[in-house]
From TrEMBL, chains A, B:
Protein name, as recorded: D-malate dehydrogenase [decarboxylating]
Cofactor(s) needed for function: Mg(2+); Mn(2+); K(+)
Keywords assigned by UniProt, alphabetized: Manganese, Metal-binding, NAD, Oxidoreductase
Source organism superkingdom: Bacteria
Pathways per UniProt: Carbohydrate acid metabolism; tartrate degradation; D-glycerate from L-tartrate: step 1/1; Carbohydrate acid metabolism; tartrate degradation; 2-hydroxy-3-oxosuccinate from L-tartrate: step 1/1; Carbohydrate acid metabolism; tartrate degradation; 2-hydroxy-3-oxosuccinate from meso-tartrate: step 1/1
EC number per UniProt: 1.1.1.83, 1.1.1.93, 4.1.1.73
Domain Isopropylmalate dehydrogenase-like: from-to ranges: 5-347
GO MF: tartrate dehydrogenase activity
Organism encoding this protein: Ancylobacter moscoviensis
Function according to Swiss-Prot or TrEMBL: Has multiple catalytic activities. Apart from catalyzing the oxidation of (+)-tartrate to oxaloglycolate, also converts meso-tartrate to D-glycerate and catalyzes the oxidative decarboxylation of D-malate to pyruvate.
One Pfam match: Iso_dh
Reaction(s) the record says it catalyses: (2R,3R)-tartrate + H(+) = (R)-glycerate + CO2; (2R,3S)-tartrate + NAD(+) = 2-hydroxy-3-oxosuccinate + NADH + H(+); tartrate + NAD(+) = 2-hydroxy-3-oxosuccinate + NADH + H(+); (R)-malate + NAD(+) = pyruvate + CO2 + NADH
Amino acid sequence: MTTYSVAVIPGDGIGNEVVPEAQRVLEAVARSGGFSFDWTHYDWSCERFARTGAMMPADGLAQIRDKDAIFLGAVGFPGVPDHVSLWGLLIPIRRGFHQYVNLRPVKLLAGVESPLKGREPGSIDFYVVRENNEGEYSSIGGRLYDGLDDELVMQQSIFTRRGCDRVMRYAFELAKGRKKHVTSATKSNGISHTMPYWDERFAAISREYPGFTTDQFHIDILTAHFVRNPDWFDVIVASNLFGDILSDLGPAVVGSIGIAPGGNINPEKEYPSMFEPVHGSAPDIAGKGVANPIGQIWSGAMMLRHLGEEAAAAAIEGAIEKVLARRDSLTRDLGGKAGTRELADAIIGALPF
Amino acid sequence: MTTYSVAVIPGDGIGNEVVPEAQRVLEAVARSGGFSFDWTHYDWSCERFARTGAMMPADGLAQIRDKDAIFLGAVGFPGVPDHVSLWGLLIPIRRGFHQYVNLRPVKLLAGVESPLKGREPGSIDFYVVRENNEGEYSSIGGRLYDGLDDELVMQQSIFTRRGCDRVMRYAFELAKGRKKHVTSATKSNGISHTMPYWDERFAAISREYPGFTTDQFHIDILTAHFVRNPDWFDVIVASNLFGDILSDLGPAVVGSIGIAPGGNINPEKEYPSMFEPVHGSAPDIAGKGVANPIGQIWSGAMMLRHLGEEAAAAAIEGAIEKVLARRDSLTRDLGGKAGTRELADAIIGALPF
Ligand SMILES: CC(C)[C@H](C(=O)O)[C@@H](O)C(=O)O
Ligand SMILES: CC(C)[C@H](C(=O)O)[C@@H](O)C(=O)O
C-alpha cells in the first residue's frame, strides 16, 4: 500500500478548523482507494511568530523537504505585518521548492450563486495557471532620497526565459486534456520590456503545440472579459501579478471565492508541492466552528490529483458538487445553517463508496 | 465670449466618425452656454505613420502646447505595433503635458445592461483616479543573455513621492464633493518595495484630509469586490497599472465599456489635458456609420467640466442618460438600430435647451 507523507500546516485562524476536516475527508477516500497518509503536523503560524519571533524554524524547509506534499490552511493574523507572515512562510516555500505553477480552477457549480446574470452551471470552466516564483514579485529594489521631497522607490520585475517557458508549457500540457485552448495575459502595450518578452516566449512555446488554439489579451480588457465573456476561456497563463489578480477575480465571477482551491506546484516532483485554499485565515469567524471547509477539502482533491490518485480526487470533487447542488448541510456563507464539521460529514456521506 | 482652442485628433478607425459627432454636440451646448470653440484638426494617426513614418511630427507637442485642451478619438490599426501607435503618440502626450491623472467615471445608468445581477441604476457610482505618468509604465529595463537559455528581462517600476502625492491629493479633492470616501489599490503583500511605499504615502496624504473615510485593498481582492460589492466605492486611487485594470473592469461591470469616457488631466492647467473614450479604434466596424458616439460625447462633457463649463457638461451628461433610458435611437452595440449620426442627433435633441 502506498503511503503519502504529508506536511500539515494549518496556520492561523480558520486554518485550524478546516484542515482537520479536510484530513477526515482525505482519510475516507484513502481507505477505499488503497493508499494511506502519514501526516506530520507543523505549528508554523503567526501564533508561533508571537511566541518565538519566527513563522517557522530556520531549517523549516529542510524539515519538510522530503515530504510528498504540503497541506496548508491559511496564514495571517491582524497585527502581524505581511512581510512577516507571507515573506516568512508562504513565499519562501513557493520559491524554495520551485513551486513555479500556481494553479486555480474556476468553475461555475450548481448551487453556487454567481453574481453574473444568466450563466448556467458548467458554462464557465477554466484554469488560471499563474507563474509563482518570479516576475513582478521580485524583492529587488530600493529607495533614494529617503524622507525628502525627491524621494523615489524602485522595484525590478524579472522575467527569465526558463521561468516563462516552463509555466507556459505547463499550461499547454494542462490544455491537452481539455479544449486545447490557451490564453495569455499580457500588457505589452504599456509595460515595454518584460511584457513584450512574455509575448515572445508565448509565441515560441505555442509553436511547440500545433493543433492548439491560442489568443492573448491585455490584462485590462482581460479582466473585462472575465465579467462579459467568462465562457471564452479554457486555460489562462499569466505572470505572477496578473495571475494573482485573475485567480481572485475568476472565483469571484463564479461566486466561489470562499470555496476555491489552489495548488502551488512543482510539476517535476523534485520538491514537494503545496495545496491551500484561496480564502484566508478569516480571524473574524475563527474558533466558532462555522467556517466553510470546502476550499480546504477541494485543495485536498487537487493534492491527490498531483500525487497520481485521480480517482480519489474526482470522487471528492464529485461529492463537493453533489452537496453544493443539494443545498442542505451548507455553512452560513452559502446561505445554510451547518457548521464546519457537518458540511465535511455531508461530503464524506456523498462519496461514491 | 470665451473661446476655447481645442486640438482635435480623431486618430484611426471609428475615431474619425465619432469625433465629428461629438463636436456637433459640443457646438450645440456652446451656443446656449455663451462660449465657443476654435478647433484645430491634426491628422496624427497610424494612417499618417504609414504615409510619413511617424504618428505625429517631431515638434508635435510644441504645436499643441498652447491649446486649452486636446480632444482625441482613438489610435491603433491592425499591423501597426503598439510601440509605434501608443509610444509614438498617446504616451508622449500624457507624459509631456504632465497629465498625471487619468480619470474615468463608473456609473450604472438606466437603459444600460450590466452583466451583474440585481443592481439598480445609480447604485454603482464611483471614479477611478489612475496615476498616469510613472509607476509600472516606466520604460527603463533591458535584456541579458539575448537568445540564450539563461536569457532574462528586467523592468523597473518607479514611484516618486511627488508622483504619488499629487494623484492621491487629486483623489481626495474629487471625493470632497462626493461621499468623502477614498479607496487605495495596493499589493504591498506581494510587491515589496513600491507598494509599501504607495501605502505609506496614502497614509500620509489621508492625514491631510480629516473627516474623510479611507480604506485599501490588495488589487487581487479589489477586482473581486468590483464584481461582488461595486456599491462600496466612491473614489478609488491607483497606480498606473492597477488603475489601467480597474478602469476597464469598472466600466465592464456596469456594462458601459463601449460608452465610457476618460480624461488625461493636468490639474494645474499648466499644460493642456486630453479627453478620449475608453473604447479603441474598432477597425472591424469603422467606415460603416454604426459606431456608438456616446464615449466620445461623454469625454467631451468631461472636457467641458475641466474647462470650467460645469453647466454645459451636466447638460450633455443628462442628455446622454435620457437617451439611454428611453432606449430609442441607440446603436447596434446597445441593441438598437440607429447610426452614429442619429444617436448624436438624439442627444442634441435631449439637451435641456
Ligand atoms: C493603450 C494602452 C497603452 C493604454 C494604457 O494602458 O494606458 C490603454 O489601455 C488606456 O487605458 O488608455
Ligand atoms: C498573500 C499574497 C502574498 C498571495 C499572493 O499574492 O501571492 C495571495 O494573494 C495568493 O494569491 O496566494
